[in-house]
Amino acid sequence: MITRRCFLASAACAAPLLSVAGRSVFPASVTVEKGGTVEARYYEKLPNRKIRCNLCPRSCVIDDLERGYCGVRENRGGTYYTLVYGHPCSIHVDPIEKKPLFHFLPASRALSLGTAGCNVFCKFCQNWEISQSRPEQLEAMEIPPERMVEMARRENCPAIACTYNEPVVFAEYMHDIALSARRQGIRTVMISNGYIQKKPMLDLCRSLSAVKIDLKAFSERFYKELVSGELRPVLDTLVLLRGEQIWFEIVYLVIPGENDSRTELTSLCRWIAAELGMDVPIHFTRFYPQYRMTNLPPTPVKTLQEARKIGLEAGLNFVYTGNLPGDEGENTLCPTCHALLIRRLGYTVVENRIKSSHCPECKTTIPGVWK
Amino acid sequence: MNRRQFLHTGSMIGLGTCLLPNLRQAAAASTPGQARVVLAAAGVDPRQPDLKVLGSALDRGLEALFSRPAPQVWASLFSPRDVVGLKVNCLAGRGISTSPILVELVVDRLRTAGVNPGQIIIWDRLNADLKRGGFPIITEAGRVRCFGNDVAGYSRRLFESGSVCSRLSNLVAETCTALINLPVLKDHGIVGLSAAMKNWFGAIDNPNKYHDHCGDPFVAETCSLPLLRDKIRLTICDAITAQYEGGPPCMPQWCWPLQRLILATDMVALDTVAWQIIEDKRRQAGMASLREAGREPAYIRTAAGLGLGIADPVRIEIVKV
User: Fold this and answer.
1) Is the residue at A369 inside a domain?
2) Residues of A in contact with B211 (CB under 8 A)
3) How confident is the model at residue A36, as a pLDDT?
4) Mean pLDDT lowest for which of A54-58, B19-23, B273-277?
5) Angle separating helix axes A198-205 and A171-183, nearest 10 degrees
6) Which residues on neighbouring strands pair with residue B259, listed in sequence order?
7) Are A21 and A45 contained in the same domain?
8) How far away is chain B from the Cα of A225, in angstroms, using its nearest Cα?
9) How much of chain A, in percent, has pLDDT values that exceed 70?
């Protein structure tokens, strides 16, 4: 059994520390544009040197010399710049199951990177040391997209994961990494809160291979009070992903007393079934006290198992429990014959019986990206 | 000795005042339940303020605020044991930043009050901001230092006040025992007014999270962080040049020579007066009020509600000298 302490030690909350290890493993040997800035791609110029950012639903209107809510994009004389392009502060090689993506290249390694900044302000953030920081407050490396892809290839990683902080805030960097990686036969995935405008998300769909969306609750109240964001745009992103037919999975962090009511979970699962289909995997993951929510206990195991049951009752085919190593909800079962397809323990794939995307028993096609 | 030499050498030490008692309790000479805000005329060329004229305004202003001779005020507010942080506001560059001449005068008065040059730190968010405002970056010990939070760093600890949760500049959290607030007076495109309280967004690591709803309640809650609030001894707002539209960047077409220093120990009262000054100027210019423009600085009233000061104009005594 993996203890909570072990789990947290190996989880993404250690990302700021990983940058130190990352530096020794991946020495920065390249330079980027002067001043470490690249012009942002999603904004419009307004009178008096103001700009409006069109990257995320906040649509920040930003005066000269000011930054957006994310803290990593700055208006300089009426031109908007991203300050994190080519400047990851955390790099590590993770199992893809850690993202978590359970139907995407199981048991593969993903070169994972993050920068400073986030476009929301979750009170329960596990990576707040980097996500709530500005670029100048963190030690960062200088790694252009091509160099990142080269690192992935050298580390035998078939995938690059943009993760740790919110990748939307480094959309340009992620996009260019994904394009470069695709030319090298490497896939790129985005681990995101889905709080992004339509145009940049559509552009990213052209280069990404998979997306994981953190759906933090199914109520606007929760998003307003605990996330400083909105639910509706995230749901819109999920519907968009469905329409674009890019592979995506959903994570729902179950927080005791905040988003764990049977009513809310039932509404959520029914919405997924109706709007996204039965085959979208959803992971109900365990909350641990973090950041500004240290007053709550970890999610009871029973609550997670109950959430999984609600998902299955709603007709969803792939409902998982997460952050609960050893629970049967970690495994993938065939939705038709219920045969065990993938047995997992934490982030480790113990057994994978899927053959050419099919159940070996009843030949049902199992949705996902398997090779 | 020119300004640069002054800031670099830091050679004058008021040894005679070293033994003065630390009377931090000194407060502006307003009656209980009231606040006093002083507008000190400083008829100087904004591009090159005259040291004597500005020094006179500073001294007269302090004397009017505390009803005591200026040297006594400095000595009662600051002890030779204090490490004093001077928080300037240089975001907008030379056009609308805290005047280095004013800062030089404050440094001089502190040293006369017995504060060692090595215990005086001029600071802002970033070195780049300070440079834009005309301040040299100085980090050597034993001299008056001048650097940004990018040099000082931020606390590991999180500080919370209402909806605000931030790391404080190490200068506030650890280094300084006393703070002097040296803001400018300008319009702000999101929160309406940037003067005394808004200047402390430069003391936290994540101000970008706190501009929604015109900065309300975030500006007030930032100022109510106990570690910060308890160290602020005085606010001297540089309103030699002020700006009534287009801030926070400098927009020369909307700047005007107000030629005042605004002094208070009550930041809420100072901001209340500053807001009125901006509104008066906007009215003269035929512009909409900040409320009509959708950016009324409601955080001022919120700050009063938090007990940080007085926002009721009736209870604010404005003294012009």
Assistant:
1) no
2) 69
3) 61
4) B19-23
5) 20
6) none
7) no
8) 10
9) 90
Counting the structural domains of chain A, the total is 2
In a domain, A219, yes or no: yes
Distance CA B292, CA A38 (A): 36
How much is the pTM?
Answer: 0.88
A126 and A66 within one domain:
no
Apex B150 CA angle, B184 and A294, nearest 5: 100
Q: What is the pLDDT of residues A142-167, one digit of tens each?
A: 999 999 999 999 999 999 999 999 99
Q: Please give, rounded to a whole number of angstroms, the shortest distance from the CA of A163 to a CA of chain B.
A: 21
How far from the centroid of its chain's Cα atoms is residue B259's Cα? 16
Chain A residues with CB under 8 Å of B208 CB are 67-71, 134
Over residues A289-347, the pLDDT tens digits come to 999 999 999 999 999 999 999 999 999 999 999 999 999 999 999 999 999 999 999 99
The three-state secondary structure class of B241 is: strand
Q: Is the pLDDT of residue A13 over 90?
A: no
For residues A118 and A64, the answer to whether their CB atoms sit within 8 Å is no
pLDDT bin (cut points 50, 70, 90) of residue B29 is low
Is A359 within the bounds of a domain?
A: no
CB B217 within 8 A of CB B268: no
Reduced to 3 states (helix: H, G, I; strand: E, B; else coil), residue B318 is: strand
Does the CB of A146 have a partner CB in chain B at under 8 Å? Answer: no
B27 confidence band (pLDDT: 50, 70, 90): low
pLDDT, tens only, A190-219: 999 999 999 999 999 999 999 999 999 999
pLDDT digits (tens, 9 = 90+) for B235-263: 999 999 999 999 999 999 999 999 999 99
Same domain, A78 and A145: no
**Non-local CB neighbours of A154 within 8 Å, separated by 6+ positions:** none
Report if residue A151 sits inside a domain: yes
Using CB atoms and an 8 Å cut-off, which of residues 105-124 of chain A contact chain B?
121, 123
Which single residue is written with the structure tokens 């605020």? B65
Cα–Cα dist B238/B246, whole Å: 18
Range of the domain at A75: 34-82
| Same domain assignment for residues A302 and A213 | yes
Whether pLDDT at A6 is above 90: no
A69 and B208 in contact by Cβ < 8 A? yes
Beta-carbon-side half-sphere exposure of residue A283 (alpha carbons within 13 Å): 26
Query: Is B206–A228 a contact, with Cβ atoms under 8 angstroms apart?
Result: no
Q: What is the CATH number of the domain that holds A325?
A: 3.20.20.70
Residue in the block written with tokens 């973090």:
A290
Q: pLDDT digit string (tens) for B43-66? A: 877 777 888 999 999 999 999 999
d(CA A179, CA A187): 9
Q: Which of A21, A48, A82 is the last residue of a domain?
A: A82
Q: Do B248 and A133 touch (CB under 8 A)?
A: no
User: What is the ipTM score, two decimals?
Assistant: 0.85
B/e letters for B43-67, b = 16+ CB within 10 Å, e = fewer, are ebebeebebebbbbbbbbbbbbbbe
Q: Which helix (H) or strand (E) holds A188?
A: strand A187-192
Are both A78 and A149 inside the same structural domain?
no
Among A72, A243, A247, A56, smallest CA distance to A159 is for A247
Q: What are phi and psi of A202, to 5 degrees?
A: -65, -40
Instruction: For each of the domains in chain B, give its residue range(s) and CATH number, in order of start.
Output: 3-7+34-320 (3.40.50.11440)
Closest residue of chain B to A136, computed from CA coordinates = B150
